[in-house]
Write a structure and sequence with these properties.
eight-stranded mixed beta sheet; 8 strands; binds coenzyme A
């Protein structure tokens, strides 16, 4: 099979590193996912199988193999998010299209215990730079439910552009859910990296979320 541009890869910024899934991630992945059902389920694709079944240690080998296969075929870049060397979440670059469109969609989650440290904005910035660099894409899209204020903050921090409102767009948590589409094309970075643009942004004010 021909080499896929930009895959596999381990792009990083500071303590945040993205890497391919490993078979031996099973136990850690399952432990985080089972502990985070309430945190993750509202934002995840609908499924006829219950959470326990989908996120058990035994469910990982099939998922791992589907992700690795998607990566090898160039259809997706299925990254695990590591923070300080520890697995804390996933970031999946999917719907990878080359040709005249050269676009992709990014989805992500982190362990609730690690939320609020800016891990996902950094992971997304690293992924955007990788997509525009080694993968050779021109556009990155992120689709978010209007209720997902935490995820809306992530794209706000990166300065992604609001592109539109998709009605009943994705089958999430048991129903067809509206999503807001955000995107960025490479020209918007004016030759800078997304990681450096994120680093240059002022920190969130302390009054946000009652953390003052
Ligand atoms: C959305 C998500 C990935 C953000 O990741 P993160 O690494 O915590 O991102 P940040 O640290 O930048 O935090 C983003 C916002 O989350 C909110 N937040 C932070 N800590 C939080 C916590 N413990 N509980 C709830 N919300 C929290 C804050 O509003 C924060 O914005 P702020 O920095 O301006 O205060 C994470 O909340 C998550 O995994 N949620 C569940 C899955 C999900 O929604 N995936 C995205 C689907 S589109």
């Amino acid at each position: 099979m021909a080499k896929v541009p930009g895959w596999p890869a381990t792009p990083s910024a500071g303590p945040v590193l993205l890497r391919a899934p490993r078979l031996r991630d099973a136990r850690t992945w399952s432990e985080i996912r089972l502990r985070n059902e309430r945190w993750l389920a509202p934002w995840e694709p609908s499924s006829p199988h219950d959470w326990e079944e989908r996120n058990s240690v035994g469910a990982w080998p099939a998922l791992h193999s589907a992700l690795r296969s998607g990566g090898r075929k160039g259809l997706m870049l299925p990254f695990m998010i590591c923070y300080g060397g520890r697995l804390v979440g996933q970031l999946n670059v999917s719907n990878v299209v080359h040709g005249a469109l050269r676009s992709c969609t990014v989805g992500y989650w982190v362990d609730e215990a690690m939320a609020g440290r800016g891990i996902t904005p950094t992971a997304l910035a690293v992924a955007v730079d990788h997509c525009f660099g080694a993968v050779g894409l021109h556009r990155v899209e992120v689709d978010i439910r209007p209720e997902n204020t935490a995820s809306l903050r992530v794209v706000e921090k990166l300065g992604l552009r609001r592109e539109g409102f998709y009605e009943r767009f994705l089958d999430i948590d048991g129903g067809w859910r509206d999503h807001i589409a955000f995107a960025i094309t490479v020209e918007e970075l004016n030759g800078r990296s997304m990681v450096s643009r994120l680093a240059a942004l002022p920190p969130a004010p302390a009054w946000r979320n009652g953390r003052a």
